[in-house]
Design brief:
single chain, alpha/beta
Length: 507
């Protein structure tokens, strides 16, 4: 049996000005890896492709590896890049008896609001009887087009995403059981009219913790797979928001009942999915108080409005500027995306003094606010090729490529500046540059939730800092035009009918 495995993964922030072309899917190369090269990269890793490969080998399938195209979150995907990836996958299906697909679920292209649904529809049209299993990110915005054009669909249970290989394994096991005709999967799905703030979607915290636990309990007792997708609110499309997908073995009533049950639980907790903001100056004072307490480990300053793994530009300067204004000392910052400044520092050389204009180079026309460059004078402390092997659960075994990377030391503040967008999830992003994060008083991280994988256990405290960026948790700063209405919390009430999400008709 020949089984195709491929990836097309991108979380699209439709408010982001960062360009998403084929190069971004290719790790800086001309095109994404495929075939034996892709197989070698992902085999044995804690990734969805790693999970698919493992289960396929266990089932003694012949693996035909297709394209492995994954890009860091950013703006809408260039149509040329999308068509290149789709074409490769459509060629792959001609050679195989079944297909395992690693998708994201929140891809928006220049032409299609539902990139994954469009791909799956094309596959189904080309090969109507091809068995298809799909793994998706928890932040997927599920659509009818996605669900109706595959046989199996599963999503992560964790955020930070440390169960990617487990999610793919779950999908692949159902897939192979289906191929052996041991089961006949039935899928039920629906969505609730709510846009949970990403900062309230972490599975270490309520309300998502309980939702995901319940989903897993139901998987163990009554269903083949149960996935609660919290959605990605910064993809401004019709179906953005929280969804549930349930798979049973030929039990449609049970699948529907389970889906509705979890949506009811999510809707009842909708207020808890709303993030409460704090003024930046107040956050800095809180950080000072925390650092003055006896304890071990750094205080983490979370610049979550500018998280590159949610499409942030990774170059807004407001939190850094506030750190300097409040005279915080012994700080390590990860990081700033500014290849121009890296080039300047490389030309100047390690140990030299330099004055640079850092950040603020992206014009974020979707926001009511703009960032700005900040002029800094400091020492070029280090220059590095930017590559290290990930050691944390989320990407273990994969090579992280930050591009050429430099450290600018401004007094007691060490600022890491990168040439490729990378979220700080692994302490190796500091250690590879000679900075031991546990020995710093403060760490500033441009992250939302994923930092927890590698940094939460070493932190004395975490202070969430409201800066500026296209990952803003303040929905009043962005103009939603395409998402269905009414939807919570953009709309608070509909004639007093809040008790049942079904009352919020989107028809």
């Amino acid at each position: 049996m020949k089984i195709g495995i491929a990836m097309m993964s991108h979380e699209t922030n439709t408010f982001s000005p960062v360009i998403t072309d084929l190069k971004r899917f290719s790790g800086g190369n001309e095109k994404p890896p495929s075939g034996e090269i892709a197989l070698d990269i992902y085999k044995g890793t804690a990734s969805c492709l790693g999970g698919f490969i493992s289960v396929a080998e266990q089932n003694k399938a012949e693996i035909i590896m297709g394209i492995a195209a994954g890009a860091p979150p950013s703006g809408p995907v260039k149509q040329q890049a999308y068509e290149f990836i789709c074409s490769d996958i459509l060629q792959l299906i001609r050679k195989v008896d079944g297909l395992l697909l690693d998708l994201h679920g929140a891809m928006v292209t220049e032409e299609f609001s539902d990139g994954e649904g469009e791909l799956l529809a094309r596959i189904r049209k080309s090969s109507p009887n091809l068995p298809i299993a799909v793994s998706l990110d928890m932040h997927a915005n599920i659509t009818k087009k996605m669900v109706s054009n595959c046989d199996v669909l599963t999503g992560y249970h964790t955020y930070p995403h440390i169960d990617m290989d487990e999610t793919a394994t779950r999908a692949a096991n159902i897939f192979f059981s289906m191929l052996r005709k041991e089961i006949s999967p039935t899928i039920s799905w629906s969505n609730a009219p709510m846009l949970p703030h990403v900062m309230r979607q972490g599975t270490d915290d309520e309300p998502n913790r309980s939702l995901q636990i319940k989903a897993q309990e139901l998987e163990q007792s009554e269903c083949l797979a149960v996935s609660v997708f919290t959605g990605f609110p910064h993809a401004d499309i019709q179906d953005a928001g929280l969804s549930v997908v349930t798979i049973t073995d030929s039990n449609e009533p049970r699948a529907k009942e389970t889906t509705d049950r979890l949506l009811n639980l999510a809707w009842a907790a909708k207020e808890a999915f709303v993030y409460q903001l704090e003024p930046l100056d107040q956050s800095m004072e809180s950080a000072k108080r925390s650092a003055s307490k006896q304890g071990s480990g750094p205080v983490i300053l979370l610049d979550h409005y500018d998280n590159t793994a949610s499409g942030g530009t990774m170059d807004t300067t407001e939190v850094l500027e506030s750190i300097l204004k409040h005279e915080l000392d012994d700080v390590a910052v990860f990081g700033f995306y500014d290849p121009q400044v890296v080039d300047q520092m490389q030309a100047q050389g390690v140990g030299k003094q330099i004055t640079v204009s850092l950040g603020g180079k992206f014009f974020m026309d979707a926001l009511e606010k703009q960032s700005h460059p900040i002029e800094l004078t400091g020492e070029v402390k280090a220059i590095f090729n930017g590559k290290f092997k990930a050691k944390v659960a989320m990407a273990r075994g994969l090579t992280v490529n930050m591009g050429t990377t430099a450290i600018l030391s401004v007094g007691s503040v060490d600022i890491i500046i990168v040439s490729r967008h990378v979220e700080p999830t692994d302490p190796e992003c500091f250690r590879s540059l000679g900075i031991e994060p546990t020995e710093k008083k403060y760490l500033m991280l441009k992250s939302r939730i994923h930092y927890r994988v590698g940094f939460r256990d070493i932190a004395q405290e975490v202070i969430e800092c409201a800066g500026i960026g296209v990952c803003t948790s303040d929905y009043d700063q962005i103009n939603f035009q395409s998402v269905r209405r009414p939807i919570f919390p953009l709309d608070q009430t509909i004639e007093g009918e809040n008790e049942d999400w079904r009352n919020w008709s989107n028809d």
